[in-house]
Amino acid sequence: MDWANVINNPYLRNLPFKIELNRWGKILMSPASNNHGRIQYEVGSHIDRHKQGGKIIMECSIQTSDGVKVADVAWASDAFIDKYGFETPYKKAPEIFEITSPSNSKGEIEEKIQLYLARGAIEVWVVDENGNTSFLTVNFPVMETS
Length: 146
Description:
alpha+beta; tt1808, chain A; six-stranded mixed sheet; two-stranded antiparallel sheet
């Protein structure tokens, strides 16, 4: 299965799950809590208030070497949007903001971070369900928590 099949499949629309694909085209689903959705909105709103220009994209799909991953929140600069528009999935990653769920293991999150950075993300923020934030950039491969 490819991403266009997922998007166009009427059975997969409006599910209360985040859907991703692994490298073999198999669907991965993660249930999202209401708290997860609240934090996702707050992160996007915070970025929108403090960034000049660019676009906030919720549930941003990115083609990685391990299939299509979906970042909870992404910020794409005006230059990124001019170059890539809203292609789905992106072949290059904008800046990414991932919100963890209780179902995510540390290894899953670390793997996603590396996949996003390998696809060109400059910075990844990981926000847990308590609002604690860790930052990882291509220049600083060690996560710092604030």
